[in-house]
């Protein structure tokens, strides 16, 4: 039976920033496992460090992140004090001083931290970890709360990459999602960042929002391109009101159907390519000389909890509420609620609340999924030899082949250029945990 692409695009699937995905995390893995994995970390190899800042001044109605709304400084100060204790706990478990190649501040809104607080936090991280001379320090930024003092603190602390949340620049769309952010404001902050010496700038866009049209999203892309970012991320809006009830506030304005979502994605993708950006994976774009574009061309592109990256570190240490860590033997996640995270840290134990252990099959399938998501191709000959059950998966891809989503040549799979937005659908066939009736995920495209 022929399956059309619209039907496939509506499939509810994970984003595959890990395998097994967070849906498989459980409390069968806890702080004792995280302790053991930290103690076993190879400190001769550089690792990555993720810091989660769980605060925003205002809730955007589309948001799917782990965040808390505050207009007061007191909760932020309490968080920072606890975060410093968590850093000490983590470092105390490591067998040596851990070199860091990538440091990423996510949220929430990391740029909500006052300038002096950010400077102090960076000093603490430099004192407790070995930040390499070529370390990439990236911060996610909300332009609406960015001031000169924060920009100066970022520059003085060594921040060398920022990602600006743009989402959409059309005023009507901004009203529908309750995120008012005029183009002039964004442009002025970009100029200020560059003047401070922070030149590597990425911007995040979202398609699938209320009141978007091909015309509005094309104009947004044109405005973003004029600002000259090195990278652009184009994410499909994940409408999951059963997990994020506030997203129901978008529904009265009307959400695009799956056909409209595809048209929005195609329009934005086409505009970015015409502007000279190279497509990276399923949702990133970069200037040809950018490290991400180079990695995609030479086959070293990776995918982790932050999305597409050049980061090949074997260990990711996550600190802060809901932060995820990754080790040779499994993944761990801190308690998502800030109070429960703080309670654990104040009691002198790691705040790990759930996770998953990896076995040989998980690692093998994870490598296949990552190759499909990054390279749009995978040679499964060696994998099938080690795990014959994979042969049955290969034989079950006929429907995707007929739909033009994947091509099979013996043990080799490839995803045609026009089908790359559907890569998650191919990857999902190798997911040994995904339930056919899964509803927690958002649309695949």
CATH superfamily of the largest domain: tm_1862 like domain
**What CATH architecture of the largest domain would you give?**
Alpha-Beta Horseshoe
Give the count of helical stretches.
16
**What percentage of amino acids are in beta strands?**
15-25%
Percent helix among the residues? Answer: 25-40%
> How far from one another are the termini?
22 Å
- Unreliable stretches (pLDDT < 50, length at least 5) are none
CATH level-1 class of the largest domain: Alpha Beta
- CATH topology (level 3) name of the largest domain: pyruvate-formate lyase- activating enzyme
Structural class: alpha/beta
Strand adjacency order, main sheet:
10-11-9-8-7-6-5-2-14
Number of self-contained structural domains: 2
Largest sheet properties:
9 strands, mixed
Q: How would you describe this structure in keywords?
A:
three-stranded antiparallel sheet, nine-stranded mixed sheet, Arc Repressor Mutant, subunit A, pyruvate-formate lyase- activating enzyme, 21 strands, alpha/beta, 22% strand, 445 residues
Short description:
This protein is an alpha/beta fold and 445 residues long.
Describe this structure in words.
It is a single chain. This protein is of the alpha/beta class and 445 residues long. It folds into two domains: 1-17 and 359-433, Orthogonal Bundle (Arc Repressor Mutant, subunit A); 21-319, Alpha-Beta Horseshoe (pyruvate-formate lyase- activating enzyme). The protein has 16 helices and 21 strands. The radius of gyration is 21 Å and the shape is globular. The model has no long low-confidence stretch (mean pLDDT 93).
